[in-house]
């Protein structure tokens, strides 16, 4: 895939994400805003009843069940948090659309209406193949660079197995440095997480496991800039491409190594057969050819006898 085609695919991919973000935010945003205000109204009423001593058992049960339902849908339950579309504003919806087509699927927010769920199904069925095509081109771009580096690291004096292990160590070390350790520093500072939690989040994300217990840009008490969310998504995109490329390059090297061993074994068997023939040991092919010669001689014997009789007469 040439760079022009890859560039067009990347542009089409991000246009697709923008389209998905617009639809999801338009469907889910007003519903989230309504539920958030309702949760805050119920919470204010419960606090008022508690102060007045009017909080009955039934009211308390209703409060707990309602708050649990809102919490499961990602609705903030604190009076200090604004209800301005925290989960389903355009930025969050863009990030959510990206988790669909990359199949990470954190699960921290989910569509709540039939319409948005139906759209999510169609969006995934069309978006995942688009991402796969674009992703293969991006991985090929990384792969050509890594193959050049792999060629530079080839050492004729080193055992091939040790050489492959060394290349594996270099690629994995560079990958962890560029896409895990360094981004974890930035994410840890932006999210106020422990550094170990940021490392955990990076690895879980780039392996597409996506538990959803840690999600960058999802803290309701934090104010995130659009640039930060864009950087996080580009980090995920290029990190996934690098990890896939490293696996492909190393798999190809070990496959070529296996073919080389197979050729050596085949050459060894052929050499053994030639040595046996030189030492006077009959082989199957020679035996069969001798048998064919004997049969042809037997078939020609009557013809030779008849020709001798005709000659004598």
UniProtKB/TrEMBL annotation:
Main location (coarse class): membrane
Subcellular location: Membrane
Record keywords, A-Z: Ion channel, Ion transport, Membrane, Potassium, Potassium channel, Potassium transport, Transmembrane, Transmembrane helix, Transport
Pfam family, one: Ion_trans_2
Topology in membrane: Multi-pass membrane protein
Domain of life: Eukaryota
Family: Belongs to the two pore domain potassium channel (TC 1.A.1.8) family.
PANTHER family: POTASSIUM CHANNEL DOMAIN-CONTAINING PROTEIN, POTASSIUM CHANNEL, SUBFAMILY K
Protein name, entry field: Potassium channel domain-containing protein
Organism ancestry: Eukaryota, Metazoa, Chordata, Tunicata, Ascidiacea
